[in-house]
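Encode chain A's predicted structure.
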Amino acid sequence: MQELGSHRSAALRLFIASREATTPLAQREFWLEFSWIDQEYRAAVRRLAQFCAEHSRR
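Encoded structure for chain A:
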């Protein structure tokens, strides 16, 4: 989770910085990268929450 979170944070920082320093095409690439990493992070959070819910019942 921490590794995915740090990748997500780094991608978000790049995307935000790209708004001032890159072309619209590059901004789109940064957005797509952030979006993909964000989806991976959210899926991992859901899996962790499901795991915790399943094991807290025992």
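The chain is about 90% helix and 0% strand.
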